[in-house]
Description:
- Helices cover 78% and strands 0% of the residues.
- It contains 22 helices and no strands.
- It starts with a helix and ends with a helix.
Amino acid sequence: MKKKFTKIDYSLISIPLLSVLVLSCIFLIFPNESKNCLVNVRARINRYFSSYYLWVGALFLLSTLILAFSPLGNIKIGKKDDRPIYPAFKWGMMIFTSTMSADVIFYSLCEWMMYMGEPTIKNRQNPFEWSITYSLFHWGPIAWSFYIMLAVAFAYMLYVSKNKKQKFSEACRPIFGNLIDGITGKVIDLIAIFSLVAATATTFSMSLPLLAQVAKTLFHVGTVQTWSLILMALIVIIYLSVSLLGLKAMSRFSVIAFSMFGLLLLYVLLVGGGVGSDFVAGGAAIRNLTTNFISLALPNKINSFTQNWTVYYWSYWIVWCVATPFFIGSISKGKKIREIILGAYFWGLSGTFLSFIILSNFGIREQIRGIINVTALLSKDVSYPVIITTLLKTLPHYEWGLIILSGAMIGLYCTVFDSITMVISKYSYKNLLVEETPSKKMRAFWAIAFSIFPLVLILTGESVYNIQSVAIIAALPTSIVMILIVISFYKSLLGRKKN
């Protein structure tokens, strides 16, 4: 224990913690000035870097396809006689639940509403169909390519190159060499930690109010902010407890979370009466996505919709790439590169596409049938969590639906934060071998630290636009490091092939 204590890198703990505390105080004391700053910085990024974000997304997707369908895909992660750590089904569930937080449920239920006021959607011949098309695009192959490309790079680093450090910076060693042991590596790791703080802040701030609104609806007491505090504490306790129990507990909990998520989709599909129509509409959206993919990914003209949504989503996935690909890589020993890429695409796209096809179409169907007028509610500034719970209350035995939704959201929150707490705790050590795990105190520290900033954003009532801006700003330096990691990976991979 004493030996592990001396290995702690205190600068990678103290600097992020102090920064989070300072930022939180600024947002609490100067809320209006903070909002204006976010708006101005995001406007500048949209003006100068929108094309950059789009090209990064396209290149990451292309890179995974080249790896999967070239001879490089036959390279095994680990030794020749190594077998996969987990069966394919459990591995797939762990990938989905460790990457898709409760945001996938929140956005599946209301993203189509967010798009309806956008001219890009309103001017289409079938706006509802195109709202789902854009959802599938933003949660589709490019989104998953960020995770998958880095997961392969990290898996290769852990089990083939066998680097002694489990950090973002270590993946850049083939380019920077021993500079990674100095200030260069420190800067890269600080960027990674700040990026993850932005990721957790965005995730909690966007979807936790829905969970709080559901709790308020079920128990008929309290406010959304009070329930947000209670639920945040509950989620931290659960995911910390599971994290402390280790990977076996995490794999079992991922099965529970995945089952709750599947049960929610099944409930809405069967009870909502959309078994046939949902998949017809979903098929049309997939056809739209397939035939228009290139123009969506690299449009001739970047408009406000692309800046407000596509750039945001690519930023959202980028800031999450600090931790989740590390986790995917760590559970992929014994698989070939091709198996990791195609398997992750299958599980990731199956889960996200089903979620949006079922949950989005449920709301759209209720709007078309006149059961609920979402447009009118939005014009009255009714919040998305209130609209979503109002939608779900139109279902028979809606209380059960709200309970299932709560279980699924809590489960997905916990599985994602299980993985990132485990990964980010490893950043806090100067050296940590693959077989070593962070101390329980270190994991507890990060579990609590990650809850500070999102709570501040919730308590200050930040708008959707401002919360999204946090991810966009943090993604810019992180994306540069990600590109360096991919270049380093190919350098290491091709160097091994020559030898």
